[in-house]
Amino acid sequence: MTLSLAIPSKGRLKEKSEAWLGGLGFPVSQIGGERGYQAEIAGLGDVEMRLLSAREIAQGLIDGSLHAGITGEDLLHDLAPDAGVDFRVIERLGFGGADVIVAVPQAWLDVDTMADLEAAGAAFRKLHHRRLRVATKYMRLTRRFFAAKSVGEYRLVESAGATEAAPATGSADVIVDITSTGATLKANGLKILQDGVILKSEASLAMSPNAPWTDGSEASLARLVDRIGAGAKKV
Ligand SMILES: Nc1ncnc2c1ncn2[C@@H]1O[C@H](COP(=O)(O)OP(=O)(O)OP(=O)(O)O)[C@@H](O)[C@H]1O
Ligand SMILES: O=P(O)(O)OC[C@H]1O[C@H](OP(=O)(O)OP(=O)(O)O)[C@H](O)[C@@H]1O
């Protein structure tokens, strides 16, 4: 059977994914121009190449509808119910590096750590009779991290984008989001908590333990893995 292999269809990860595969000797050619969602890859054998959003790729690897793909580790960790079994990272690719972080308004002078945040949450609840609201796209990562830090005085608000604006617009008090240069946080008057780095992410080639593997699809992935020099990975 064919190996289903996905790379991001747009955004910062797309070009670099194509360049990385091309550099290994597996050039990707897009069908229908820049905006087409179909592509071909040369040299890997029987491969169905898919162009999807980074989030869809992570979901497809976890549910087994894709064999392998390039996506952000942040998305894999957030979408996987069990990161230990739902995907396997074959190779970290050295681009798309960014941190998932907890940030609060710079004006909160007495909140610099997760413990401070819990104390502020308790005080806030007493004063305003409601919990602090945390805006994020990273629902699972946030819940896990807050529980690990023993922070319970909060409520999640799912963000559809522009998360850093939430405290200023009043739709939330705290945010969990991804940052690389820190410029967006700064522009929105936010600071990262000292122990508030949840995950250091980068773009990765990952495979799905849940996909229907066959000799053919394993052989195609093995060709790619051998070329990377990562050694054959057992499916
Ligand atoms: N500022 C950043 N610097 C570096 N890598 C980033 C940054 N923001 C996101 N990424 C990485 O790129 C991945 C995809 O993010 P991107 O915003 O390009 O796509 P998306 O979230 O699928 O797009 P959209 O928001 O349009 O749905 C993220 O999950 C993360 O791994
Ligand atoms: O730390 P920074 O370098 O400021 O990057 C952070 C921003 O990048 C991502 O958004 P998106 O992909 O929409 O952002 P962009 O258009 O700012 O690259 C992320 O959701 C942040 O908003």
From TrEMBL:
It holds the Pfam family HisG. GO terms for biological process: L-histidine biosynthetic process. It catalyses: 1-(5-phospho-beta-D-ribosyl)-ATP + diphosphate = 5-phospho-alpha-D-ribose 1-diphosphate + ATP. GO terms for molecular function: ATP phosphoribosyltransferase activity. Keywords: Amino-acid biosynthesis, Glycosyltransferase, Histidine biosynthesis, Transferase. It comes from the Bacteria. One of its GO terms (cellular component) is cytoplasm. This is ATP phosphoribosyltransferase.
